[in-house]
Amino acid sequence: MSVRVGVLGATGAVGQRLIQLLDPHPEFEIAALTASESSAGKTYREAAKWRVDAPIPTDVAEIEVGATKPEAVPDDVDLIFSSLPSSVGQQVEPEFCEAGYVVSSNSSNGRMDEDVPLTIPEVNADHVDLIEVQRDERGWDGALLKNPNCSTITMVPALEALDRAFDLTDVRVSTLQAVSGAGYSGVSSMEIIDNAIPHIGGEEQKMETESRKLLGSFDGAEVQLHDMDVAASCNRIPTLDGHLENVWADTAEDVSAEDAAEAMEAVTGVDLHSSPDQLIKVFEEPDRPQPRLDRNTEGGMGVAVGGFRETTDGVQFNCLAHNTMRGAAGASILNGELLNKRGYL
Ligand SMILES: NC(=O)C1=CN([C@@H]2O[C@H](COP(=O)(O)OP(=O)(O)OC[C@H]3O[C@@H](n4cnc5c(N)ncnc54)[C@H](OP(=O)(O)O)[C@@H]3O)[C@@H](O)[C@H]2O)C=CC1
Ligand SMILES: N[C@@H](CC(=O)OP(=O)(O)O)C(=O)O
């Protein structure tokens, strides 16, 4: 039997990706859509300025959009996906959890809260059980699970492979991020065409902290952050989708370029519908991965890496992932599948 799901922020850039991925999903059935007061009461077709490069699903198009509050969502909805602005998520996500809903959220609010699990199922699925601690502390029947920031998701699977084999000590990363990461009206064409912007508010700190939580260890009570040092520099460039990152990773154990590529190539997906068979695709060509050519690796749920070089204390490499698929909507859905499999719904 399929799980009835609701989507908060369903009309936005990430919300539309969620609809695209949920409509044909074998485990989930879309039962409720919400957005701001200005969209509430309209059909989804009227409320959403549909911008996905595939037709709007006809059955979803006729659903009436509700206000973003628990009373507007039917009680028989088992799982909520949230892609709200973080200032709105901060306020309403706890209200949904308190009302008994389990929420898989893409928004940045609360990601570093001590009792909120932050997961990439292929990397740290065990952290999901932090929900038990959360429920004890907050008295919720529902639960809140987060996926990380899109730039963080892009590098962490590769870092995890290196850490497991060679012990990471320091990570330095510089990003080239697509405009879709800022939302449809986030960066004006006059700002970004023929340009690069060396500032994305709050992004560097997210990469530096969320990566240490994801690679941290969970002992059943709390997550100890990984003790590696991470420093990031984030840049917006005029690509549409796909964040490309240049990473320098220092390790305690000796590592060659070949060893690093082999460790990453060996990473498989997990037994969840949206997890690819091979999580990390290694390119031999020195000029790959590239956003336009490689962002749809494994249907947008894979990570592409290449450009390996040995450095004095470790390796340098490049990595790329689709920021609204693996980096946002796909990540939330994968977390929803994890919640379902672990019996949290
Ligand atoms: N774009 C991306 O690649 C990524 C985005 N994110 C994060 O995901 C979240 C959504 O991003 P994105 O889809 O780009 O944002 P959009 O601005 O495109 O969409 C925001 C959504 O939230 C709704 N909304 C806005 N204000 C309110 C409110 N006061 N009450 C209820 N609903 C409201 C909007 O409804 P309405 O249409 O009615 O205004 C819309 O559905 C953000 O937290 C963002 O940081 C994370 C990773 C990647
Ligand atoms: N800041 C990211 C997208 C984003 O919204 O991230 P977060 O989920 O951490 O708010 C970008 O601009 O590409």
TrEMBL record:
<dbReference type="GO" id="GO:0046983">
    <property type="term" value="F:protein dimerization activity"/>
</dbReference>
<dbReference type="InterPro" id="IPR000534">
    <property type="entry name" value="Semialdehyde_DH_NAD-bd"/>
</dbReference>
<feature type="domain" description="Semialdehyde dehydrogenase NAD-binding">
    <location>
        <begin position="4"/>
        <end position="131"/>
    </location>
</feature>
<feature type="active site" description="Acyl-thioester intermediate">
    <location>
        <position position="150"/>
    </location>
</feature>
<keyword id="KW-0560">Oxidoreductase</keyword>
<dbReference type="GO" id="GO:0051287">
    <property type="term" value="F:NAD binding"/>
</dbReference>
<keyword id="KW-0521">NADP</keyword>
<dbReference type="Pfam" id="PF01118">
    <property type="entry name" value="Semialdhyde_dh"/>
</dbReference>
<dbReference type="InterPro" id="IPR036291">
    <property type="entry name" value="NAD(P)-bd_dom_sf"/>
</dbReference>
<dbReference type="GO" id="GO:0009088">
    <property type="term" value="P:threonine biosynthetic process"/>
</dbReference>
<dbReference type="InterPro" id="IPR005676">
    <property type="entry name" value="Asp_semi-ald_DH_pep-lack"/>
</dbReference>
<dbReference type="InterPro" id="IPR012280">
    <property type="entry name" value="Semialdhyde_DH_dimer_dom"/>
</dbReference>
<dbReference type="GO" id="GO:0004073">
    <property type="term" value="F:aspartate-semialdehyde dehydrogenase activity"/>
</dbReference>
<comment type="similarity">
    <text>Belongs to the aspartate-semialdehyde dehydrogenase family.</text>
</comment>
<dbReference type="GO" id="GO:0009086">
    <property type="term" value="P:methionine biosynthetic process"/>
</dbReference>
<dbReference type="InterPro" id="IPR051823">
    <property type="entry name" value="ASADH-related"/>
</dbReference>
<dbReference type="GO" id="GO:0050661">
    <property type="term" value="F:NADP binding"/>
</dbReference>
<protein>
    <submittedName>
        <fullName>Aspartate-semialdehyde dehydrogenase</fullName>
        <ecNumber>1.2.1.11</ecNumber>
    </submittedName>
</protein>
<dbReference type="Pfam" id="PF02774">
    <property type="entry name" value="Semialdhyde_dhC"/>
</dbReference>
<feature type="active site" description="Proton acceptor">
    <location>
        <position position="243"/>
    </location>
</feature>
